[in-house]
From TrEMBL:
Sites bearing 4-aspartylphosphate, chain numbering: D62
Designated name of the protein: Two-component system invasion response regulator UvrY
SUPFAM superfamilies, per database record: C-terminal effector domain of the bipartite response regulators, CheY-like
Record-annotated Response regulatory domain positions: 12-127
UniProt xrefs under InterPro entries: CheY-like_superfamily, NreC/VraR/RcsB-like_REC, Sig_transdc_resp-reg_C-effctor, Sig_transdc_resp-reg_receiver, Tscrpt_reg_LuxR_C, WalR-like
Annotated CDD domains: LuxR_C_like, REC_NarL-like
Keyword Phosphoprotein: yes
Swiss-Prot/TrEMBL keywords: DNA-binding, Phosphoprotein
Key word rRNA-binding present: no
Length: 218
């Protein structure tokens, strides 16, 4: 039994985060648990490009990154490979991000403020094909379900939410179109509906809404 355990190959992880120090810390933490980071990426675009060659057991994906961001990257990875196992990481305290990324197909969600051992437990659970949501996030999701979530972002479709977040982070319509592979007119249509649903008239007001509900960070 001991020999068989020793021969079990390590879990192979793709680590996606735009902060090099964060990746280094995670890599060292996972290495102590015999979990191997086989490749790293600092954008969602790079993760989508590298994934087919690497085929990791688990993708650990930060949601807040420049460019397309983690949520869109999760959607694209799972569109390419429905069997991809993704653990989303986020510093956001809202319920909209975990709900949307889990709905998009991620198996796990872990708040970055979780204890270090939670990352190891989450990676191992997702590698087994099991769902994992940290206790704080699970409680927030349950509370929102029971009380009714007043977060205005829940009014938006998946694509509208992506456009909204990108715009709130300061991207132009042209940049959003390029990032999400959409036409300018399509982005404009989504933006019009976002403004209507959220009662905002310009980019500054949309940014305020996103900050107010913890959907972006300064």
């Amino acid at each position: 039994m001991t020999q068989a355990n020793q021969e079990t190959p390590p879990i192979r992880v793709m680590l996606v985060d735009d902060h090099a120090l964060v990746r280094m810390g995670f890599r060292m933490l996972l290495a102590d648990a015999q979990i191997e980071v086989v490749t790293e990426a600092d954008t969602g675009e790079q993760a989508c490009q590298d994934y087919p060659q690497v085929r990791p057991d688990v993708v650990v994906m930060d949601l807040s990154m420049p460019g397309m961001g983690g949520l869109e990257a999760v959607r694209r990875l799972l569109a390419h490979d429905p069997k991809a196992r993704v653990l989303a990481l986020s510093a956001h305290e809202d319920s909209a991000h975990p709900r949307r990324v889990l709905r998009a197909g991620a198996l796990g969600y872990l708040a970055k403020r979780s204890a270090p051992e939670a990352l190891i437990a989450a990676v191992k659970a997702v590698a087994r094909g099991e769902r994992y949501v940290d206790a704080h996030t699970a409680q927030a999701l349950a509370t929102a379900q029971i009380e009714g979530d007043a977060n205005p972002a829940e009014l938006l479709s998946e694509r509208e939410f992506s456009v909204f977040i990108q715009l709130a982070r300061g991207q132009t319509v042209a940049q959003i179109a390029a990032t999400l592979n959409l036409s300018l007119s399509t982005v404009g249509s989504h933006l019009y509906r976002v403004k209507q649903k959220l009662g905002a008239s310009n980019q500054a007001e949309l940014t305020w809404v996103a900050l107010r509900w913890g959907l972006i960070q300064v």
